[in-house]
Amino acid sequence: MRTIRTLRTALLTAAVAGLAATALPTAPAAAAPAAPAARKFLSAGQWPASPTPWTAGPVHKGLPEDGSLCTAGTVPAKGTRHRDFRTELDTGARQTVTVAPTTAKAKALAAELRTALATCLERLKEQEPGLEGVSRYHGRVNVEEGAYVHSIDTSYPEAGSTDIGLHSVGRDGRTVTVLEWGQLGDLDGAPLQGFRKTTGTAVAKLH
Length: 207
What we know:
By secondary structure, the chain is of the alpha+beta class. It is built from five helices and seven strands.
């Protein structure tokens, strides 16, 4: 299990690698229509405002190789795609979208993911001696079948480091999405209201 800081580093590394692999050609070219998979995902500009702009990586099939902080082992690889985002500062984000075989299975997956978020900090503490933190539930976002927002504020007192992660899970019919956002600092410096808005936008885009 990994801390918020490790997740943030992994998100930034994955995003940089993905963007390098899909760098734009030097010669101007007409913009291609968005692929169907990409239409379900957030664009870079739909994340909360940051001092430096967000950049979106490509949409990949399956689960991210580096896993996800709180939901690893819960999201199935089949029917799943993910996209990483980054800024020029020490901030990273990820969106995962899963299309379940049935609405009932999507509802069950969303419930399992909510439990995974609610219990994430306790599991982190079991794996990371010396880790301290506070986990909070920030309520429902009223969009489609609903979305739910959590924060995990962690610190290593001996190292003097603090990290904040914002997480959400939402569902529209058979489709479930998970958002992860992380940076240095604490909840007071995190764009919680902006993240709630981003969560609503993400769920609304699923269909």
